[in-house]
């Protein structure tokens, strides 16, 4: 069974960001044949812990569990509101505290929300470079939802969600399972065992 982590950086409750994240997760799960464990992470619930982790270098408590969920997932959906033509500080803080190489080659679907369509390019000039730096495998279709997409443009939004989810599911299916290290591949020499080493 595939594991899908869904990171949402919405500040309100409810938020359009969480709503988009939920739609992307449902569509991806359906594209995977309904055979996916979906783990949702609301960054607003971990805001203080993220600041602590930034200062100390060590995530703790429930925030550590959220970081491990993303690290161990087979795929990731990352959704942020757009403020001042870029992702939110909360969103960036989360990806700043991840260990190096945690997203290396991981299939990722990007999503964003904002008040107007003018901010849709933030996905390409802000989010994609961040995930390219983290060496994630970002799907070609990203989904931006402006306020008007929740009304009359809902059909177009649904089409984009379906297409992006299909791309993420295909990438997750094509990714080889990580090789598990065999503890017997590199045995400790008998002399070292006798010497207490």
UniProtKB/TrEMBL annotation:
State the source organism's domain of life.
Bacteria
Where's the NADPH-dependent FMN reductase-like domain?
A: 4-150
Q: Does the keyword Nucleotide-binding apply?
A: no
- Any single Pfam family the record assigns to this protein: FMN_red
Q: Which residues form a coiled coil?
A: none
Q: Name one GO molecular function term.
A: oxidoreductase activity
InterPro entries on file: CE1759_FMN_reduct (IPR023932), Flavoprotein-like_sf (IPR029039), FMN_Rdtase-like_dom (IPR005025), NAD(P)H-dep_FMN_reductase (IPR051814)
Keywords carried by this UniProt record? Flavoprotein, FMN, Oxidoreductase
- Mind telling me what this protein is named? NADPH-dependent FMN reductase
